[in-house]
Amino acid sequence: MAYLFVHEDREYLLEPGERFESDLGILEVPEDVAPGDVVETHLGTGFTVRALRGPDLFTHLKRTGAPMMPRDVGLVLGKTGISGGDRVLDAGTGTGILAAYMGRAGAEVVTYERDADFAAVARENMAVAGVADTVEIRTGDVTDDLDDLAGFDALTLDTEDAPTVVERAPTLLARGGSLAVYSPFVENTRETVAAAREVGLDGIETLDTIQREMDFDDRGSRPSTGGVGHTGYLTVARRP
Prior knowledge:
Rossmann fold, alpha/beta, 7 helices, Vcp-like ATPase, Chain A, domain 2, seven-stranded mixed beta sheet, four-stranded antiparallel beta sheet, globular
């Protein structure tokens, strides 16, 4: 299991027994290291050991593209209620941020990634996140297996062909099961909504995920003028 080693504004993801070299010295990670320990380099620089938490996944997992932002992950989990014991069908694994969060929430996840190299990295990330036993990453296109998939508690999609999968939602989802489709483009989102309406899903709702940080200084307080507020569109619905 990997842990974070923190010194001031530096964070390194290391495993027990690993040797790490930096300008702060050589860090020999003990085999029995545990959260809360302070491990020193050969130069005497202390690193505090911290357990890997959800928000750390976004920063430290290997990336194969733009991962889903934590705020968008929060919306997916909040709107679907995915939790322990749920079975989730996911497509568009990418880095695996969403799959890892769902696995850490206790769900059993089957996730599809078309790019074999991306899938391999995602499997490594699931091991780092501690969910390799509950998140199964399949290399391939979920649309090829739709006839063999059914009865999931939630369906989460981050793919261009999401509308095609949504058309099969009444079979893929158990009664009362939730759908969450994430897309950076409004055209794809519109097609998703149309597909959800066509197959009779309930509670169809689309959100433009916008978030602004606040700046506080001696002059006053206001939303930050930097950064990008919009990240994507999230459509949620349920099978009646």
